[in-house]
Amino acid sequence: MLTGDARIRVLIADDHELVRLGLRAVLEEGGIEVVGEAPDGASAVDAALALLPDILLLDLRMPVLDGREVCRRVVAAAPAVRVVVLTSFADDDDVFGALSAGASSYVMKDIAPDALLGVLRGVAEGRHILDPAIAKRVLDRSQVTDAEILSPREREVLGLMAEGLANRQIAARLWISEATVKSHVSHILAKLGQSDRTQAIVHAMRRGLVPPPQGVSMP
Hints:
It is a single chain. The chain is of the alpha/beta class. It has two domains: 9-139, 3-Layer(aba) Sandwich (Rossmann fold); 146-206, Orthogonal Bundle (Arc Repressor Mutant, subunit A), CATH 1.10.10.10. Helix content is 52%, strand content 12%. The chain contains eleven helices and six strands. It has helices at 17-29, 41-51, 67-77, 92-101, 113-124, 132-140, 146-149, 152-162, 167-174, 178-192, 197-206; strands spanning 9-13, 33-38, 55-58, 82-87, 105-108, 129-130. A six-stranded parallel sheet has the order 2-1-3-4-5-6, sandwiched between helices. Strand 1, helix 1 (17-29) and strand 2 form a beta-alpha-beta unit. The longest helix is centred in the last third of the chain and has 15 residues, at 178-192. It is globular.
């Protein structure tokens, strides 16, 4: 999460050069630093892991490696890199596949330039932002559960949170850095719509994502 006057660093991944050039112009005019571009999914993963931008601005339909797999690999290897999907496609497989893969935002390519800048700034601050039409479908689709929205690693971290482990202990248990754990916890809170760890754990227990303490039943 960025603070103060730090500039947002963005990597653009889109297979159309004209789109990349247009996005670069919009972002740089809006005060956002473009650290690189990628024309296909494989190079997007490589660039994201090498450059560690604040945000990967990702087209969903990419050659070599599709956007959902790009998102999954980047979030797993570098959870501090937030993924904003910018696409022309909005069918359920694309939307829920991207969210399950760990995308922080899903917006359509007809978004206005100022609105896109606002999305990037919001995501850099730790928020999860969806196109309004997409957000309504997520809320309306009852079969989409919290378990599907959380990534496998996030569910693992949530389970250890419920066991009462602190970030340092979770990091040691999973062989990852404490900073990575903090990033996972931030994602979990945002995706579950909770403001702190305790609320997230109670919510998870009520939804059956993690078991309650022995002898305790959840309402």
